[in-house]
Write a structure and sequence with these properties.
Blueprint (H helix, E strand, L loop, with lengths): L4 H12 L8 H8 L3 H13 L3 E4 L5 E4 L8 H8 L25 H17 L4 H4 L3
Antiparallel strand pairs: 1-2
């Protein structure tokens, strides 16, 4: 499972917003060392997925819109990038000449097993547990 920079930054944004206080993009970026050009795009995705709330206006900013004990790392990461795979051959519709109709490639099967383990681990703890709150 290849986690992109956006996935990493999204988890950092969630961490920056704990405590309930509204924060500006500048504050979030300063706290978590996130480049501004990524932050706006990621915050929009997190808002669309219901993780953060945008407060508009002169005193605007962002705050968490979901309790940390109601979602996991997997939930955040899949909201940012729904195409997470250990290896390219696991993508739906991806054709590999090594996967014969009567028998899948042994490496493919191992990557499937590893991917299931990773997804299971990312779903294991809530963000509250991960952040030890």
């Amino acid at each position: 499972m290849f986690l992109t920079k956006e996935c990493d930054y999204s988890l950092r944004i969630i961490r920056a917003l704990i405590g309930g206080r509204k924060k500006t993009v500048e504050e979030i970026c300063d706290i978590e060392y996130i480049p501004h050009q990524y932050a706006y795009k990621i915050l929009k995705k997190l808002q669309h997925a219901g993780f953060v709330q945008s407060i508009r206006g002169r005193d605007g900013g962002y705050r968490l819109d979901k309790p940390l004990d109601t979602f996991t790392i997997f939930d955040v990461v899949s909201a940012i990038d729904s195409n997470l795979f250990v290896f390219e051959c696991l993508r739906e519709g991806k054709e590999c000449p090594r996967n014969l109709s009567e028998r899948l490639c042994a490496v493919h099967l191992e990557f499937e097993r590893i991917q299931k383990l990773l997804v299971g681990e990312m779903r294991m703890k809530t963000m509250s547990e991960v952040l030890r709150l």
